[in-house]
Amino acid sequence: MRIADKWQDYKIIDTSGGEKLERWGGITLVRPDPQVIWHSEHKTDLWKRADAVYHRSSKGGGEWEFRRKFPESWNIEYGELRFVIRPTGFKHTGLFPEQAVNWDFMSDRIRTAKASGREIKVLNLFAYTGGATLACANAGASVTHVDASKGMVSWARDNAEASALADRPIRWLVDDCEKFVKREIRRGNRYDGIVMDPPSYGRGPGGEIWKLEDCIFDLVKLCTEVLSEDPIFFLLNSYTTGLSPSVMAYILSETVGERFGGQVQADEIGLPVELSKSPFPCGSTAIWTR
């Protein structure tokens, strides 16, 4: 497992009974997580003193119980990046901290390529609130940020402002990812790196239905047609438990690897847990490089 262990402003403190206790800056939250199938004893009374708890509803969704007054949003930092954190009605906060391990990987690749005199263009699909976009832009790449949600793209732009990266060459696009890639193919636009973090299930702005297992192979294959002649990475994330790292690696090998050679690595990604000896699993990533 690749562990995102460089955080100062974020920490998983403990996990048990379908929930995780986290610290986001100076604020502690309890949120449900389907990975937490164990019922170990709570290792701290911070569970009882958390600032807010998200309660799932038996009818779907849920709501926050705020135990004290705190700002609607606040900032946390990762290196030179700054993110706006905001508890939402669907339990999320606007950031997946485990992705920091991938931000570091892409940043290193971009800086190495730029050191040889190359200009690097990156395409970020299903780009959410822009963690990967900001990491790549901060490393010196031009980035095209695509997400079907206008609200998420607006949030990503707020993160760029907070990180002092608003003046970097970033294209902010509210669009269906597959339709956008098809247009880029026709336009002849090419990218040196692609990162995608597709949802397990979703709908595009025109009502298009997305189901990861049914769509991901064809989309990855389509994306090989917008890669440059000398790409530096293709990174694929998944939170779907049925899509193992080895399956994702196979998909990249049969698409990007078939066209460009290179090698593929895949593994779980995770976060350290302060009061546990074991890291917490947070999904999987497969990476193609050459």
Characterization of the model:
The two termini are about 20 Å apart. The mean pLDDT is about 95. The protein contains seven helices and 17 strands. The strands form four sheets. An eight-stranded mixed beta sheet has the order 1-16-17-15-12-9-10-11. A five-stranded mixed beta sheet has the order 2-3-4-5-6. Strands 7-8 form a two-stranded antiparallel sheet. It is an alpha/beta fold and about 290 residues long. It has helices at about 45-50, 100-115, 130-140, 150-160, 175-185, 210-225, 245-260; strands at about 1-5, 10-15, 20-25, 25-30, 50-55, 60-65, 75-80, 80-85, 120-125, 140-145, 170-175, 195, 200-205, 210, 235-240, 265-270, 280-290.
Q: Globular, elongated, flat, extended or rod-shaped: what is the shape? A: globular
What's the total number of strands? 17
Biggest sheet, spatial arrangement of strands = 1-16-17-15-12-9-10-11
- Rg (C-alpha, Å): 19 Å
State the helical fraction: 25-40%
For the terminal residues, how far apart are their CA atoms? 22 Å
Mean pLDDT, all residues: 94
* Annotation field: number of helices: 7
The assigned structural class equals alpha/beta
Share of residues in strands: 25-35%
Model regions low in confidence, pLDDT < 50 over at least 5 residues: none
Largest sheet: 8 strands, mixed
Order of helices and strands: EEEEHEEEEHEHEHEHEEEHEHEE
